[in-house]
Amino acid sequence: MVNHQNRKWYLLPIFLIGMWFVSCQEGELDMDDNFIYTSTYTSLIDTVTIQLSTIVDTVKTTSTGNALIGYHQHPIMGGQTAQSYFSLSAPSNFSWDTEKEVFDSLVLVLRPTGYSIGDTTVDALFNVHELTETIELNDDGSLYNTNSFAFKETPISTESFRPYPQKEEEVNMRLDDTYAISIIDFLNTYKNHTDKNSLFEEDYKGFVINCDTTQTRAAMAFEVSDSTSYLRLYSHTVEQEKIEKEQTFSLKSTTQFNEIYAHNKDIIFNQLEDKKSRLTEQSTDGMVILQSGLGYKFRVDLPSLNNLIELETKGHIVKAELRIHPNMDIMQTDELPSTLYIGDIYRANEIWGYLTDTNSNLLTSVLTVDRMYHENTYYSFDLTYYINSRMQEAVVDTDQGLFITLPDDDMGSSLMWLAVNGHSITNNNSKLLLYYYYYDNE
């Protein structure tokens, strides 16, 4: 959600508190003779130290309803490839007249969702490879962007086409005739066999769709459902006239998943493979990264949180706002994700869960876009409740921090990304803003 309204905060200058130099001015709260007179100082503290770090986690890519296929040259992390795996099952209503029916073709049909990233003005080259290894789910019933299964080197289909994802034009890939006829022969031979389904899945384990990275310059998402991704068998019979026939074979959506990986291991972000590790903003030129398909998130640590506890004895934090500034030297406005999510994370990057608002809804960001100068574009999170709750702890555990991520719906089925300025850089840095009322008891 984009917020173009200016926030109205009336701040009074000059007040020095603790380790921060902030501005304030003594004010009077005079509501009537029947009320108690109170002197207050109003301060904005914008120098609280925060630490940003890039982290990575595996991404569940099964049952997303999207097959992500293609290649993208990322401006920071280099080449990235997505390939999608499908398993087959024996069709339940297959019919074939061995005396009269003539095979024409077996075609894999894919329909774009409309999502793409990269250059769609050049032709893409997709390949279909037959699997030699059965797709098996992990113990948790899922598959992730890091999973892969063996396949034959020689493709059973190659198709060059111009990507038009927004038009959602079907991509049709004709499979090798020898492969197709072998399926027909198998189904005719075992049509009455009690173990037909299991025997079929042993012989025809499925396929993976990938791309030629020397030609393809974009990654696209395709719908995965019985009506949008399937095999279509074309045949005909010749009697008094030619009669054309079509049969559709569904693909298994429960085992379809996307493998997503980076090519350039010399780039520091691509060396982050251990989910317990982190890359501090100081080690990556003051920048951290989010990306959906490869599982990049970033964490926000608050090492100075213990120093804020003494504020509670003298006043109250009325608003805490975390501002996350995208690196607009790299990002384009239309590339910015509309929404970010925030949650609790612990010492070894153990994610505890998402933060919620006072109505128990997931806490999401508000995006403010500076369309004129592109300098004051930022995401904001209202952390008032979170910060005040943490300050109730006797000793604040600074191993507990926050993580920021993209929506779950985008994880595993896109290469959406965001480059963010850390706190340590000079201009347009991410920061925590505290709006503080100080009560003068003297």
Give a quick precis of the structure.
With 442 residues, the protein is mainly beta.
Features:
2 domains, mainly beta, disordered N terminus, 3 helices, eight-stranded antiparallel sheet, 442 residues, single chain
Helices and strands, with pairings:
Elements: E1 15-17, E2 20-22, E3 26-29, E4 38-45, E5 51-56, E6 66-74, E7 78-86, E8 101-110, E9 112-118, E10 124-130, E11 157-161, E12 171-174, H1 177-189, H2 196-203, E13 207-211, E14 218-223, E15 229-238, E16 242-250, E17 257-262, E18 279-280, E19 287-291, E20 296-301, E21 315-324, E22 341-345, E23 351-354, E24 366-368, E25 378-382, H3 384-390, E26 401-405, E27 417-421, E28 431-439
Antiparallel strand pairs: 1-2, 3-4, 4-28, 5-18, 5-20, 6-7, 6-14, 7-13, 7-17, 8-12, 8-15, 9-14, 10-11, 10-13, 15-16, 19-27, 20-26, 21-25, 21-28, 22-23, 22-26, 24-25
